[in-house]
Amino acid sequence: MASLPRAIRDVVDSFERLPGIGPKSATRLAFYLLNTSESFCRELADSINNFKENIKICGECFSVAENELCEICMDKKRNKRQICVVEKAIDMIAIEKIGLYKGVYHVLGGVINPLEHIGPEDLRIFELLERIQKLNHKSQITNHKQILEEIEIILAISLTMEGEATALYIKNKLKGNTIKITRIGAGLPVGADLEYADEATLSRAMNGRKNM
Amino acid sequence: MASLPRAIRDVVDSFERLPGIGPKSATRLAFYLLNTSESFCRELADSINNFKENIKICGECFSVAENELCEICMDKKRNKRQICVVEKAIDMIAIEKIGLYKGVYHVLGGVINPLEHIGPEDLRIFELLERIQKLNHKSQITNHKQILEEIEIILAISLTMEGEATALYIKNKLKGNTIKITRIGAGLPVGADLEYADEATLSRAMNGRKNM
What distance in Å separates the CA atoms of residue B198 and residue B205, rounded to the nearest whole number? Predict the structure, then answer.
């Protein structure tokens, strides 16, 4: 690789630092850019250069936003009493893509992980409890006629050990509140072969069986 | 995806236009950049922005270069009488990585492809013939003592139909010159299972068999 001009090597090195891009892909991308239009290179560079300054954190759900609140939190059609708790903003995008969920989100910013020194205080759990408290307060004011529907917290956190611990921690913190707490379904992924499923997944799938 | 801030969408869109990066990878990359340091984003953007201006085409082999000639053509230890003909500069990088080849290169800039209206005149075939002519001329001047070794042209062009046609075209053009013309070996790739090899590859592998 010593024979590559420095400018190309710089691009290759930068690309290699991105997740999922190895030396071969990085080289291919650099040569692709070399053969593509000058304007596209400039577009790509500008979009990368500017976007950090233009991105805010939503004051309500802590997802990415253009203004003080994100589009979802500003959307009046969204059910504010159904909060889907996710680890990262990108998880929210994944759920949004299905197009089924009509509630709002809460981005934790990670999971409790003692090995990496991430405790509950490093996540936005306190902010979640505060949000729920506010909703509860609103209910008490207006709910003497039982108009408002129940609050639901959907814990859409990864089904890893750390994710489970975080979900359990939040569930315990919410004890005593009259809210519905749900956890996303666990089981075999669509298209998976039962033969190759691991025991943990299979036992979850058995326990999570449903009437047909 | 409508709920993504515009600045992120711009980055996702740009990444998606790169080869081998789909919508999911593009989104993951954008969110990775969002969580990474400001300085890395700037580095990446700058490297992409500047490199086109800093890249020249080697006047001898038409590969990428920092100066008038590329590092390989400037290297006095390289055998200038052994020319490896490749389609693209990135193919040269692949061969350089093996670290075995001590000759020089000639980048054609593609292959003859009538369907895409690419004829011999669109490639750097004329420039190759000219290079060989010059070498031949040099030989005639100095070679009365038979000091200089033979000229070898290695056709390291893809083993596709278009690649084969291009190799054949070049071979015909070089007829009458006393030079050695070779084609890179064809056969089973290392690690491949004979059972799954296609017929064309297998017949090439049989024909290309060697004494052990």
Answer: 11
